[in-house]
């Protein structure tokens, strides 16, 4: 037992970790450039910043409206829970992550990566890191902008709410939700894009699955990104009618358990993706 | 050190469709031409060689390393594929630079090697232009540059002369020849057999997914015994030579060369033919200036073994 553990340790030490790290960093840099600085990314910018634009218009043109901070706090929580988690980050990640492997196959350029001296697992994880960085950067900065636009009009009261009240911790929770949502949906869509030629129908199934997840048996609720994120919401949004399905917590769980559960789900999905990419073949005519 | 490209009983099936079947060979360094008609399995063979597709059965290694170990394998292998596509929005230089950076070299070395590869394929002037604006021939060249930029020991080239004008084709062939002389492995598939034949050391003939002949071109030609061999003899009296050679029954065909200063003779027994030719030379009736095989090239072997209607590609 001890001997096999030693062998494993020695094997791990012999691996070229430095080279892998260097290759992963360089791959990530190339991918981030392609994700963020291309015209085709415009619609993802739009998805991220559409609430920001609406809030900006509201802040500029609706100055005389009656201000109610508790109501605006609820609006912001609603934007995060109903828009960002369910639509914005969902479709943004679909666009970013399904392009990483499938998009390259459609454009017939994936073989250049597979012919480089980079382990396929490193390639996949670097692409995942690049997609995650791009999505987190876009949606995270959009959420910070939304937060600022909601509380700035309140002047010193808003300042006190943010820095001396619960505001900052709420922002941290929203950012944590954005990060986990990007990682979770990213891992799922990266895998789906490797399995299906057109990942869109499968993504729609995931969207439906995420929506009905609260009414499923508890074991099935664990196979969902949004169900973990619901437990992290700093503000409970009351949902009426069909919206109640998106906000209800049928099985309350502590935040740490939700984070760990989601990270475990991401790890499992990424491990399976690594297994798939090891066996990936370049057959563009049939792909 | 094992310096060979080795296929051991390799088969590849795409579902129920045969790609290649039970291919075995061991290729030493030098230039090897892959010859076969469309759909014969040449590209599958190259993709198997470089790990882009995985064998259904059998083992593949290049210089002792399997394609499943990319971090060592692709340091010594370069593959110029037939896929005429590139990552979007890159200039020729960026394309090479990004590829080289993945090899773990420093930025300075990536810059230097990219420039050197561009220079080798005569594309330096277009280095700063977007690949999307390149002509077909330039795209072919930039793919070649990408395959050779990291100084591989093994270069796999799928139809590398496609889309090149005659000048660029000659330059590429000269480059392949030079790389072959340097001791590199070059595996080339091309339908321009006459041109690659000049530089090839060996030939692999493949049709319908089956390997039908492999080895030195002259040896392969001699093994095709049911097709009489054609020899061009340059001499001052070709008609006399033809009649003399026809006195033996292994000479089956004679055709005068267009300039009237030579004759193509076809013989079923090449050893006996050369013995008789020596006798004729010694007799002094005919002054023989040169003797050369006229059909032991890849093109002729292809035609004999696969058939000209196959449409080599």
**β-strand amount of chain A:** under 5%
Average pLDDT value of chain B? 87
What fraction, in percent, of the residue positions of chain B are helical?
Answer: 25-40%
Q: CATH class of the largest domain in chain B, please?
A: Alpha Beta
User: How many angstroms separate the termini of chain B?
Assistant: 34 Å
Summed up, the helix count of chain B is: 11
What is the end-to-end distance of chain A? 45 Å
State the secondary-structure class of chain B. alpha/beta
Indicate how many domains the architecture of chain A comprises: 1
Beta-strand content bin of chain B: 25-35%
Radius of gyration of chain A: 21 Å
Task: Tell me the number of structural domains of chain B.
Answer: 2
By DSSP (H or I, 4+ residues per run), the number of helices of chain A equals 13
Strand order of the largest sheet of chain B: 5-6-7-3-8-9
The greatest interface here is: A-B, 29 and 29 residues
Helix-strand pattern of chain B, N to C?
EEEHEHEHHHEHEHEEHEHEEHEH
Mean of residue pLDDT of chain A?
88
Q: Tell me about the biggest sheet of chain A?
A: none
Poorly predicted runs of 5 or more residues of chain B: 309-313
Q: What do we call the CATH homologous superfamily of the largest domain in chain B? A: P-loop containing nucleotide triphosphate hydrolases
Describe this structure in words.
The complex is a heterodimer of chains A (287) and B (313). By secondary structure, chain A is an all-alpha fold. Chain A has one domain. In chain A, 76% of the residues lie in helices and 0% in strands. Chain A has helices at residues 2-14, 17-36, 42-61, 69-106, 110-114, 120-151, 155-163, 167-195, 199-212, 218-221, 225-230, 244-247, 255-278. Chain A starts with a helix and ends in a 9-residue tail after the last helix. In chain B, strands 5-6-7-3-8-9 form a 6-stranded mixed sheet, sandwiched between helices. In chain B, strands 11-12-10-13 form a 4-stranded antiparallel sheet, covered by helices on one side. A 3-stranded antiparallel sheet of chain B has the order 2-1-4, with helices on one face. By secondary structure, chain B is α/β, with parallel strands linked by helices. Chain B folds into 2 domains: 5-218, P-loop containing nucleotide triphosphate hydrolases (Rossmann fold), CATH 3.40.50; 224-301, Alpha-Beta Plaits. The longest helix of chain B is centred in the middle third of the chain and has 16 residues, at 166-181. Chain B starts with a strand and ends in an 8-residue tail after the last helix. Chain B has helices at residues 42-49, 70-76, 92-101, 107-120, 136-148, 166-181, 193-199, 217-223, 238-245, 270-283, 298-305, and strands at residues 5-14, 17-27, 30-35, 57-62, 77-80, 154-158, 185-189, 202-207, 210-216, 229-235, 251-256, 262-267, 288-293. The A-B interface holds A 16, 19, 22-23, 26-27, 30, 34, 38, 104, 107-109, 111-120, 279, 281-284, 286 and B 14, 47, 50-54, 70-75, 77, 79, 81, 83, 85-89, 98-99, 101-104, 146.
């Amino acid at each position: 037992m001890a001997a096999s553990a030693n062998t494993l340790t020695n094997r791990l030490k012999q691996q070229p970790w430095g080279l892998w790290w260097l290759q992963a960093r360089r791959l990530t840099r190339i991918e981030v450039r392609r994700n963020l600085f291309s015209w085709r990314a415009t619609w993802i910018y739009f998805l991220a910043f559409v609430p920001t634009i609406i809030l900006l218009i509201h802040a500029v043109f609706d100055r005389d409206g009656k201000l109610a901070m508790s109501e605006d706090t609820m609006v912001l929580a609603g934007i995060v829970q109903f828009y960002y988690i369910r639509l914005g980050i969902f479709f943004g990640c679909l666009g970013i992550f399904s392009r990483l492997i499938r998009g390259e196959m459609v454009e017939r350029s994936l073989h250049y990566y597979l012919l480089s001296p980079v382990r396929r697992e490193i390639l996949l994880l670097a692409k995942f890191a690049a997609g995650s960085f791009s999505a987190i950067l876009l949606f995270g900065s959009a959420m910070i902008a939304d937060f600022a636009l909601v509380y700035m009009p309140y002047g010193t009261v808003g300042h006190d709410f943010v820095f001396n009240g619960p505001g900052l911790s709420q922002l941290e929770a929203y950012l944590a939700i954005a990060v986990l949502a990007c990682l979770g949906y990213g891992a799922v869509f990266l895998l789906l894009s490797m399995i299906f030629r057109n990942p869109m129908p499968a993504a729609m199934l995931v969207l439906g699955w995420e929506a009905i997840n609260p009414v499923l048996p508890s074991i099935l609720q664990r196979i969902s990104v949004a169900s973990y994120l619901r437990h992290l919401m700093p503000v409970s949004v009351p949902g009426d009618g069909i919206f109640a399905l998106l906000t209800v917590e049928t099985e309350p769980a502590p935040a740490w358990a939700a984070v760990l559960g989601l990270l475990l789900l991401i790890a499992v999905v990424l491990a399976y993706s690594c297994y798939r990419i090891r066996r990936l073949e370049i057959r563009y005519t049939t792909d | 050190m094992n310096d060979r490209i080795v296929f051991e009983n390799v088969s590849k099936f795409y579902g129920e469709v045969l790609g290649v079947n039970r291919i075995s060979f061991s290729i030493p360094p030098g230039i090897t031409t892959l010859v076969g008609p469309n759909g014969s399995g040449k590209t599958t063979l190259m993709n198997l060689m470089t790990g882009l597709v995985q064998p259904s059965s059998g083992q593949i290694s290049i210089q002792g390393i399997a394609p499943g170990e990319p971090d060592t394998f692709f340091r010594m292998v370069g593959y110029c594929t037939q896929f005429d596509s590139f990552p979007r929005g890159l200039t020729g230089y960026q394309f090479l630079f990004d590829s080289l950076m993945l090899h773990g070299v420093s930025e300075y070395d990536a810059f230097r090697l990219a420039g050197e590869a561009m220079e080798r394929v005569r594309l330096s002037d277009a280095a700063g232009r977007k690949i999307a604006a390149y002509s077909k021939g330039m795209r072919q060249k930039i793919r070649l540059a990408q395959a050779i930029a990291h100084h591989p020991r093994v270069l796999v080239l799928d139809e590398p002369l496609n889309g090149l004008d005659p000048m660029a084709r000659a330059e590429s062939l000269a480059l392949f020849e030079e790389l072959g002389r340097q001791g590199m492995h070059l595996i080339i598939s091309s339908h321009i057999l006459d041109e690659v034949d000049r530089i090839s050391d060996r030939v692999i003939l493949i049709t319908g997914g089956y390997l039908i002949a492999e080895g030195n071109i002259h040896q392969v030609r001699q093994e095709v015994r049911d097709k009489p061999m054609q020899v061009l003899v340059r001499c001052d009296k070709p008609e006399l030579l033809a009649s003399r050679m026809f006195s033996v029954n292994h000479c089956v065909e004679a055709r005068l060369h267009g300039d009237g200063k030579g004759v193509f003779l076809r013989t079923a027994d090449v050893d006996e033919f050369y013995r008789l030719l020596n006798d004729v030379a010694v007799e002094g009736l005919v002054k023989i200036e040169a003797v050369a095989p006229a059909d032991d090239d890849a093109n002729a072997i292809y035609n004999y073994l696969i058939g000209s209607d196959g449409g080599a590609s």
